[in-house]
């Protein structure tokens, strides 16, 4: 029997915080109401309990018991405890909410001025260098002009209480070494409000180099030295294993590149790089085992285990999942010390209650939520699933399958809000990878601790630990490259509700008694839900792939508010821009069977055009770029060069062969200012071998109206079959260019219900006048264009995703114009073939991610095509530049927008 007496209060408090934290003005009232109800219910529970304990209950007790059924009397204490816990969590949130938004910070955010934030670093993203800073003071930036916060105009600091800032700033903006957890930093920048209910109260976009104060070294500083030393040590280990080992041992994911990160996510193995319960359990279990082998007293062994656990938490830094796991392990050690039994679900519930009362804003964090759900799945479902599977499998195999299946099932509904696909091979991948994880964890920790005193020995231990880490990476790479490695599901409310219903029914089947009516009912309900969903999902996937034209030449990927267009001829494939969503780009590449690119074109460096480019490092033979605008752009292009890509600088007249097609650069001319005005413009058309059967295209990036007119004035625009409409259909267009192009089809990469008003009514009307039919990713989804009979383009459309717009990623976008509306198809013949979209194919709207993402995003985060580790292109590359304007100079890059 599962003990839910503490689990119900913990779950109720969690849900209550998730709902109410975005509305802080409701917290005091909700806390007061809950506290009152808790007092009344607790009094009733005590009264009933006292009456039940008497041999002859009083008249009052008899009257109370007469109208309370026995089940209600048993549930009354649980209800009272639930209200007490919920009231405590809401009261904690109500007390701390005002201090999270001090007037000086609110005023600075409203005015948009620059300030100087001083505070202690509580968290560092090892991959992006972004920080979470607990504010100590907030003052006006002397160089910030009139945007200073009230009361701080002369540099006097405000003292915000309990205020956390998410700081978006590349490592390059720090003076000297990058800050570490526990350091005190001073950061000038612009404050903006965070989303309601987020753990961080404000966002700070740093505008100048940061001052890092290391004057107070302590235990955290020594732990940071150990982490840095171990990271440096693993740079001497090759390949993915060396990059993954720090993540598996101490949660340092700084060396894991985007491609490996996406492979781990798409195969359900990303949890191996998140320090949590498994790491703590292995460590504590090892200490207890060694203590027992040495004959130590029980209390001494448990004390040593606690000390080692505390040191481990300091070493890996207290992330939410680490805090949850360490608190559970600490409570378990304490209970063992006093001779009390330990059970998984009460331990988890107790840890959740303590953490939520201490920091209510953990409730809305993905890391905390996924950690709790995975642990709940393990403690509740592992045993019954093992028993269920053992009826057909050996016991060891049943247990091995039950563990990842339980964790995956519990987390999947929430994971769908980050990634609208279900990894098909997740359980198998975990079955193969999990045995290697403890070995890499323990040996990696040993190497980390030994490195300062015995570097050679630490390297030897790390070399041994490299093997299991490399095995895990190889498993991720392999299953990520398997076709149909993920099942498109959706991220809407209905999709998540359906997944949650399936999980509940699976749990009901596993937990009910075999051969009883309850089990039969649970099985019937499960089949009733799963079979129709499986039929619809599988049928649409098969129909979509069956209808995809095999001879497509151009394909517009639906990646939200951004551009990503594929070009293919005679087995040679190019991609023009990448969009800003790695997962949607990976889905598109997988759909069209693209694993490696012969040419990648980055028209300019706005995030909605290059945000997902890092996932393609090592997978592009050649890279064509325009003028850069800063060190971030430089770094991006440098990564491609280091991975073996040949870098070509775009210049008018440069020609590249793509199979039977020739891509000619029309823009930008030399000395053009970086940005939209310097977008790389390509004219692609077939050579003599096509015999007129190849489609032609004009790809405009985000080129503005004035630059389009200059292009027309040069006589560079000729009629084409397909035009990639500039700037997502904004108003900044030249009618003369589209009249000269006379395109049959216009491709517009645009997000659903985007806030820019793209595409505008004016642009759609202009395209109609020029006889151009419009294919929009918000309405048509991913679309492919092939040459039909008589040269008429044939269009295959996947269908729109049910999603919100992609985030606003940079300045310069046209915000005027109407909401998206259907455009007339134009007056030219175009054969449209509906391809059928996947069921509820969608993603939720996300904030701009500091690192890209795109973030991770969470998220980030499903299937992708193949490995990104590949050698440098050979001299027989099908991309053959011609013309003296081709160079291999290294561009510079602009910081992410």
CATH architecture descriptor name of the largest domain: 4-Layer Sandwich
Mean pLDDT value: 78
The fourth-level CATH homologous superfamily of the largest domain is Ribonuclease Z/Hydroxyacylglutathione hydrolase-like
Strand content: 5-15%
Number of helices: 26
Task: Tell the overall outline.
Answer: globular
Question: What is the spatial order of strands in the main beta sheet?
Answer: 14-13-12-11-10-9-22-23-24
CATH class of the largest domain: Alpha Beta
Q: Measure the end-to-end span.
A: 54 Å
Fill in the CATH topology of the largest domain: Metallo-beta-lactamase, Chain A
Number of domains: 5
How many beta strands in the DSSP annotation?
25
Tag the structure with descriptive keywords.
nine-stranded mixed beta sheet, cell membrane, alpha/beta, 25 strands, OB fold (Dihydrolipoamide Acetyltransferase, E2P), eight-stranded mixed beta sheet, 14% strand, 897 residues
